[in-house]
């Protein structure tokens, strides 16, 4: 497949223009599993969850290349930064997307309580299209306890809030909206989310150092 210009870049992958309204997401380190990621995306899409359509097996490197529907619209983060979305709206939207995802049954686990987990649902992984929000970047997806998914999103937001600066207050507002109903965030889910963030090799020492303050901020919202 011919690729065009680079249109996006994350911590571990780049996104290129492709053909016929599609994009190619390529893992920069060559260690991704696009086959597994595409499979979970198609599973949740078939259950009505808002994700891009994927075309598996259409490139010469199916393990690192994922061909997806091209979405038009800003990320939730960009809309928030531009003033088109309030922090409270952003946090509420993330909560709604998590609740909706956790109604999708697992497709591999035999545990009846297991659900599909995104594990990286934050404002830069939601595209606001004319048809509503669509969730991208399913490279971390697993099946398990929904409390872990809530914990991961809460910790990601809380780390940004704990860093201080001009965005700290707005992000804390989004965190409060996310946790307006704190029952979804379990103690085990929060503990595991903190452990995973601390062990994440893509995080800087400064980001890891923010985890105790992030935990305290989350717990203050649960009291």
Automatic annotation (TrEMBL):
Organism name: Streptomyces lividans 1326
Pfam families noted in UniProt: APH
Protein name: Protein kinase domain-containing protein
GO molecular function, one term: ATP binding
Domain of life: Bacteria
Residue ranges annotated for the Protein kinase domain, each copy included: 1-223
